[in-house]
C-alpha cells in the first residue's frame, strides 16, 4: 500500500509539476517577449529618427550606425544592439556576432517587419559564459538611400531564468514534502488497518498450536470487528468440539483399559476350565477333541488380543517406559526368525537373514523382539510363499533392520495406513495366521519410544518392505539410516512413518 500510494503520488506530482513549470515558463517568456518587442519598437523608432536627422555629408554612415548602436545599448542598459553595417558586416560592442541566429538574419533580410527568436548571448570575452536571451530583429532605414540595415535588439533573460530555477526548486521541494507526508500517512494508516489482521493471524497461529483459549479483542462494528467476532466464535466452537473429542477419546481409552483388565480374571477362569477339558478329553470322540482344540486356540488368540489392548492403553496413557540394555540387534533378529521357522515351514516360505556381524545398540530387547516378530509374521502372512529377506546393518549413528517380502504388496498411499489400529488393506482376504490387527500399531509405538523410525514401502504385486531404524545411543537424533527404504530391485515412491 505504501509503494502504491507513493508511486501514484509521484506520478501525479511529476505530471502536475511538469505542466506547472511549463505554464509558468510559458507565462514568463511570453511576458518577456511582449516587453522586448515593445521596448525594441520604441528604440527602433528613436534610432530611426536619429539616423534621419544625421547629415551624412559630414559624417560617415558606418560610424554613425556604430555610434547609434553603442548609444542605444548604453542608454538602455537592458539590452544589446547589433546593426548590420554597410562595410564590414555586423557592428557591435562586447557582443559576439554569433549571438544572432542565422534563421533570424534570414527572416529580417527577406522582408520588413519585426521578428523574435530565443538565443544564447555570446560575449566577446571568451571567459564570460553565455546567457539565455531573446533577439528582436527589424530593419533600420538610412536617409536618402533606398536600402535598410538589419538591426537586432538582444534582451538578456537571466532574471527570468533565475525565476524559473526558483520555481523548479520550489516545485521539487514541495513535491518531496508531499511525498514524505503521503508516505508517512499511508504507512500509519495501513499499519493501523493491518494491525487487526496481524492480530488475527497471530491468534490463528496460536489456535493451530493448541492454545484453544486464545481470543481476539473486538473493537467497533466494522468489517474487522466482524472478522474478530467470527474468529472468536470459530475458536469457541473448535475448542468445544476438540474438548468433546478429547473427553470421548479418554473415555474410550479408559473403557478399553478397564475392559482389558476386567476380562483377564474371567479369561483365567476359562483358561483353567479349558485346560481341564483338554486333560480329560476322550480321544475316541473326534468331535470332543476338535472342540477342545478350537477352544484352546481361540483362548490363545483372545489372550493375545487382551495383551495387545493393554499395551495400547499404556501407550495412550503415556505409561510405557523402556528397559534399555546393550544388545546385539542381529542376535535378536536371528532368534525371532528361528522362532518363526515353524510358521515359515507351514506356509512353505523361506526366510533369509543377512547381517554384517554384530549390531550393538542400547535398546529394550523385549520391545525390539516384538517389532521383529510382528514384521516377520506380517511378511510370512502376505508373502504368498515367496522368499522373505531380513537384512541387518549399522553405522556409527544407527542400526537398521529391513524385512522384505515379494507378495501381494499394497498401494503407495496405504504406506501410512498399514500402521493404523485394526486396519486391513483387503478386508475380504482370509488370514492364514492369527492376529489381533494391532501388531504394526504397537510396533510403530515401540519404534517411536526408542526415538526411531518404522517405515513401510510397497506396490501392488511387487511385495512390501518395512524398515526399522534405531539410534545406537539413547536420545540420539537420527539423521539417516544404514539401509535404504526402497529395495534395490525396485524404486518407486518412497513413503513411510516417522515420529
TrEMBL record:
What name appears for this protein in its UniProt entry? Sensor histidine kinase MtrB
Q: What is its main location?
A: membrane
The protein's UniProt keywords, in alphabetical order, are: ATP-binding, Cell membrane, Kinase, Membrane, Nucleotide-binding, Phosphoprotein, Transferase, Transmembrane, Transmembrane helix, Two-component regulatory system
The source organism is: Acidipropionibacterium jensenii
Task: Name the Enzyme Commission number(s) assigned to this protein.
Answer: 2.7.13.3
Q: What compartments host this protein?
A: Cell membrane
Gene Ontology terms, MF aspect: ATP binding; phosphorelay sensor kinase activity
Which Pfam families has this protein been placed in? HAMP, HATPase_c, HisKA
Report the InterPro entries cross-referenced here: HAMP_dom, HATPase_C_sf, HATPase_dom, His_kinase_dom, HisK_dim/P_dom, HisK_dim/P_sf, MtrAB_MtrB, Sig_transdc_His_kin-like_C
Q: Which residues form a coiled coil?
A: none
Q: Which GO terms describe its cellular component?
A: plasma membrane
Reaction catalysed by this chain? ATP + protein L-histidine = ADP + protein N-phospho-L-histidine
Membrane protein topology class: Multi-pass membrane protein
Amino acid at each position: 500500500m505504501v509503494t502504491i500510494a507513493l508511486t501514484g503520488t509521484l506520478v501525479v506530482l511529476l505530471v502536475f509539476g511538469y505542466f506547472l513549470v511549463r505554464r509558468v515558463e510559458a507565462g514568463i517568456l511570453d511576458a518577456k517577449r511582449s516587453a522586448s518587442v515593445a521596448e525594441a519598437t520604441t528604440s527602433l523608432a528613436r534610432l530611426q529618427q536619429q539616423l534621419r536627422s544625421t547629415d551624412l555629408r559630414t559624417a560617415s554612415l558606418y560610424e554613425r550606425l556604430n555610434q547609434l548602436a553603442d548609444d542605444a545599448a548604453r542608454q538602455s542598459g537592458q539590452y544589446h544592439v547589433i546593426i548590420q553595417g554597410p562595410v564590414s558586416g555586423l557592428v557591435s560592442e562586447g557582443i559576439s556576432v554569433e549571438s544572432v541566429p542565422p534563421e533570424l538574419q534570414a527572416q529580417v533580410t527577406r522582408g520588413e517587419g519585426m521578428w523574435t527568436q530565443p538565443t544564447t548571448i555570446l560575449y566577446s570575452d571568451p571567459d564570460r559564459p553565455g546567457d539565455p536571451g531573446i533577439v528582436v530583429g527589424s530593419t533600420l532605414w538610412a536617409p536618402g538611400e533606398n536600402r535598410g540595415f538589419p538591426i537586432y535588439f538582444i534582451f538578456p533573460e537571466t532574471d527570468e531564468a533565475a525565476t524559473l530555477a526558483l520555481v523548479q526548486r520550489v516545485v521539487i521541494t514541495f513535491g518531496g514534502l508531499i511525498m514524505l507526508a503521503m508516505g508517512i500517512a499511508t504507512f500509519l494508516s495501513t499499519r493501523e488497518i493491518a494491525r487487526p489482521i496481524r492480530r488475527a493471524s497471530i491468534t490463528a497461529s496460536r489456535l493451530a498450536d493448541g492454545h484453544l483459549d486464545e481470543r481476539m479483542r473486538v473493537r467497533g462494528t466494522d468489517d474487522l470487528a466482524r472478522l474478530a467476532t467470527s474468529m472468536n466464535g470459530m475458536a469457541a466452537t473448535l475448542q468445544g468440539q476438540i474438548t468433546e473429542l478429547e473427553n470421548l477419546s479418554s473415555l474410550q481409552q479408559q473403557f478399553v483399559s478397564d475392559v482389558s483388565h476386567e476380562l483377564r480374571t474371567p479369561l483365567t477362569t476359562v483358561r483353567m476350565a479349558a485346560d481341564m477339558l483338554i486333560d480329560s478329553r476322550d480321544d475316541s470322540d473326534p468331535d470332543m477333541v476338535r472342540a477342545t482344540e478350537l477352544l484352546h486356540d481361540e483362548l490363545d488368540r483372545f489372550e493375545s488380543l487382551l495383551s495387545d489392548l493393554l499395551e495400547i492403553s499404556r501407550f495412550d496413557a503415556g505409561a510405557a517406559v523402556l528397559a534399555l540394555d546393550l544388545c546385539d540387534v542381529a542376535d535378536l533378529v536371528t532368534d525371532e526368525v528361528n522362532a518363526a521357522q515353524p510358521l515359515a515351514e507351514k506356509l512353505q516360505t523361506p526366510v533369509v537373514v543377512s547381517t554384517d556381524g554384530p549390531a550393538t545398540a542400547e535398546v529394550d530387547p523385549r520391545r525390539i523382539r516384538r517389532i521383529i516378530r510382528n514384521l516377520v509374521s506380517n511378511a510370512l502372512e502376505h508373502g504368498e510363499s515367496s522368499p522373505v529377506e531380513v537384512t541387518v546393518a549399522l553405522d556409527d549413528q544407527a542400526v537398521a533392520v529391513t524385512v522384505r517380502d515379494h507378495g501381494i504388496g499394497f498401494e503407495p498411499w496405504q504406506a501410512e495406513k498399514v500402521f493404523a489400529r485394526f486396519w486391513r488393506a483387503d478386508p475380504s482376504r482370509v488370514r492364514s495366521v492369527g492376529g489381533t490387527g494391532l501388531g504394526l500399531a504397537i510396533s510403530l509405538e515401540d519404534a517411536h519410544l526408542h526415538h526411531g523410525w518404522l517405515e513401510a514401502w510397497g506396490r501392488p504385486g511387487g511385495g512390501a518392505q518395512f524398515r526399522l531404524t534405531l539410534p545406537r545411543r539413547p536420545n540420539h537424533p537420527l539423521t539417516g539410516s544404514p539401509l535404504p527404504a526402497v529395495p534395490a530391485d525396485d524404486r518407486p515412491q518412497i513413503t513411510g512413518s516417522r515420529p
